[in-house]
Design a protein that fits this description.
- The protein is built from three helices and five strands.
- It is α+β, with helices and mostly antiparallel strands and about 100 residues long.
- The chain folds into two domains: about 40 residues; about 55 residues, HU Protein, Chain A.
- It has a three-stranded antiparallel beta sheet. Strands 3-4 form a two-stranded antiparallel sheet.
- A hairpin with a 6-residue loop joins β3 and β4.
């Protein structure tokens, strides 16, 4: 699912809201999530999961095309850990049903 599909599905279920209102709300939620991660804050959505930043130290990597060694700088990257309810629901789902 991409963001436009999410917006469309929420708008279908919330008949009292316009498509623009739903899009605005979803964009605001994403903006707040991004801002929190940029400030190194942990985000927890009960039943869904949590988002944190993980640190990857600088290292020597290689270009897979040429085999050339390159320096990869240290960086932080977002990490998602699914919650118990999400794991249980996904585990029950048959991917062939769609």
């Amino acid at each position: 699912m991409v963001k436009s599909e999410l917006i469309h599905r929420v708008a279908q279920r919330q008949q009292g809201l316009s498509m623009e209102d739903v899009e605005f709300g979803i964009n605001k939620i994403f903006d707040h999530l991004i801002d929190a991660l940029a400030k190194n804050q942990r985000i927890e959505i009960r039943g869904f999961g949590s988002f944190t930043l993980h640190y990857r130290p600088a290292r020597t990597a290689h270009n897979p095309k040429t085999g050339e060694k390159v320096k990869a700088p240290s960086r932080y990257f977002p990490h998602f850990r699914p919650g118990k309810e999400l794991k249980e629901r996904v585990d029950k789902t048959d991917p062939e049903e769609d």
